[in-house]
Amino acid sequence: MTSSSTTGIDERLASVLCYSAWWITGVVFLVLERQHHGIRFHAAQSLVLFGAISLLLVGLGAFSALALMVSSQAYQAARALADGTWIGAAVLWLVLVVRAWRGETWRVPLVATLADRIVATTSW
After folding, report:
1. Which of 34, 39, 106, 114 is the most buried (most CB within 10 A)?
2. CB 62 within 8 A of CB 28
């Protein structure tokens, strides 16, 4: 693990920025940061976690559209599920940002293992 950063940005700030725009900034920092393992981990974790959540939200949006054709109750249930997912994602995002700012690394279950693999195999 290297403590110097390719980007020249403070480690805590870079870790926070990895989560700032969900998976988009995760990709940016995964590409730009070549040395610092901790920043690359946060970037990969952001990419995996918020990429998956984004896909889930797109799927729930499509499901909501289909449910609207079935009945208003089905649509309301689908929207409630999508809204709950948004709220959960926002809380998760906030927790990750705060912990990254504190210099902590929270390894999200299941996601962290895949993030470790990405960090180990990518060297853009």
Report:
1. 39
2. no
Q: What six digits make up the tokens of 51?
A: 């990429």
Nearest CA to 105 out of 97, 113, 114 is that of 97
Burial class (CB in 10 A: 0-12, 13-18, 19+), 82: middle
In a domain, 2, yes or no: no
Q: Does a structural domain hold residue 88?
A: yes
Q: How many folded domains does the chain comprise?
A: 1
**Pairwise CA distance, residues 80 & 11, whole Å:** 38
How far, in Å, CA of 55 to CA of 51, rounded? 6
Q: Is residue 45 part of a domain?
A: yes
pLDDT tens-digit readout, 5-23: 888 899 999 999 999 999 9
- Answer yes or no: is 1 within a domain: no
